[in-house]
Structures are given as structure tokens and as C-alpha cells.
Design goal:
By secondary structure, the protein is an alpha/beta fold. Helix content is about 50%, strand content about 25%. The chain is globular and about 30 Å long.
């Protein structure tokens, strides 16, 4: 299982990583803090699950998701 956690708050990323690790111990978790980094990771890794903060410093909501899906 590959999981992408995109959130600008480090504590939130840590919490989600711990939850994912508890549910799927062998999961590969990639953490990013911006929509741009999320788009690059999504394009390169094609995760099975994306946990996405909809408001980050470099984009908001559907704009950020559209950016991710363009890659």
C-alpha cells in the first residue's frame, strides 16, 4: 500500500502516518507540505490512498487537486 499525506502541518502528517502504520504496518507513506510537492509525488508514486489538506500555502481546494491530476 502506498499512501500520500499532504498537509502543511507537521503534527497532522505525523498523526496520519501513525494511523496508517497502525492499520497497514507495511505501508509506504510519503509526506509533503505543499500542493506542488503533492503533485510531484502523486505523479511519481501513484499512491493507493491520498490524504489531502484542502488548504495549503500554495493552493486551495480544487485548484490544488487539478494541479495534482495534470501530471
Amino acid at each position: 500500500m502506498r499512501v500520500l499525506v499532504a498537509d502543511d502541518q507537521p503534527i497532522t502528517r505525523l498523526g496520519v502516518r501513525q494511523l496508517v502504520g497502525g492499520e497497514w504496518p507495511g505501508a509506504q507513506v510519503d509526506e509533503v507540505a505543499t500542493f506542488d510537492a503533492a503533485a510531484r509525488s502523486f505523479g511519481a508514486q501513484r499512491p493507493d490512498l491520498v490524504v489531502l489538506d484542502m488548504v495549503m500555502p500554495d493552493a486551495v481546494g480544487t485548484e490544488g487537486v487539478a494541479r495534482m491530476l495534470q501530471l
